[in-house]
Amino acid sequence: MMVGYSGSEIGIIFAAAPLVRFLLPFAFTRGLELNFQRFNTALAIMLVSSVAFYLLLHNFWGLFFSNIMLSVGMSLILPYVEVIALEAVKKEGYGKVRLYGSIGFVFVALLLVKFLSSPQIALYYMMSFVFLTALLAFFIAKDVHKNASQKETLPNDIAIVADYKLWIALMLMQVSFGAFYNFFTIYETDHGITLDMTIYLWTFGVLVEILMLFFQGRLLRFNLVLLLQITTLSAVVRWFLVYLYPANLEVLFFTQSLHALSFALFYSASISYLHQIYANKVLAQQFLSGLTYGFGGLLGALGFGYLYDYFPQSIFLVAAVVALAAFIFITLWSRSGAKRFNN
Length: 343
Known about the structure:
Blueprint: H1 7-27, H2 36-55, H3 60-110, H4 119-147, H5 164-190, H6 195-215, H7 224-244, H8 249-257, H9 259-277, H10 281-310, H11 315-335
Helix pairs in contact: 1-3, 1-10, 2-3, 2-4, 3-6, 3-9, 3-10, 5-10, 5-11, 6-8, 6-9, 7-8, 7-9, 7-11, 9-10
């Protein structure tokens, strides 16, 4: 809004990212392959798009298409890197790699926010870190590509329809987070919690997430479907408590501690499980990103946005119901679909 865009225009610009994440994986079901060459192309797209953000900041359609292209680049890069991480450190060590993203979030939230006083400074920061990320990603992927043995082209074995119980569960879990990511701060300040305390609640949630990512290795050696059941159920408890006790700080800090289960462990268990059951591992991670954080994130943002306009007190009750539906679907999957992949 500092640049002059309305709330609806900002919503349209940022809606491009989850939409791209949802649609892009379907291109790879038609024969397109994500390899080292296309990974490099995605890095170039990401770099050019970040520069375009700066050049086209005051042009609505230019900014909109810049965000689309940045989303294309990120949607290609992240699944490729996820697979490299899982292959290199295995699922037990994955959390220790992933926790650096959480540390970065805390770094931005608590430190850099003091210096991001204008859109231009924010864009300088974004371009600098996009460049460093692209440079490091290129050399890491190049080294992996050089040392990798020749692999046969894998078929598309991602059966969305046949495995619908699993995919619906993963998607609904992310839909339920729409209330938290988009409205937690507004919801709590409306109930008398100060903005500073709300920031502390966010930070505490990320800190317990970091602890879980660091120590979760042993947990990921156990039944991953059971972990998905436990983590989805923890989300039900979490959202329902926020609904019941929106102004009770002790309860709110407890619900934020459940971020270790409902986000950190759920995220790692999801990635590890798809990596375990599907042969086409890169495509599996693309669909995880597209169907959950793409389509699920889009539904959550839009659905809870409309709900907040009419029934603001009930958004976390509805989030709990959605998470309960995710738990039911993953339980149904554990009793039927999961058996297809058991040895």
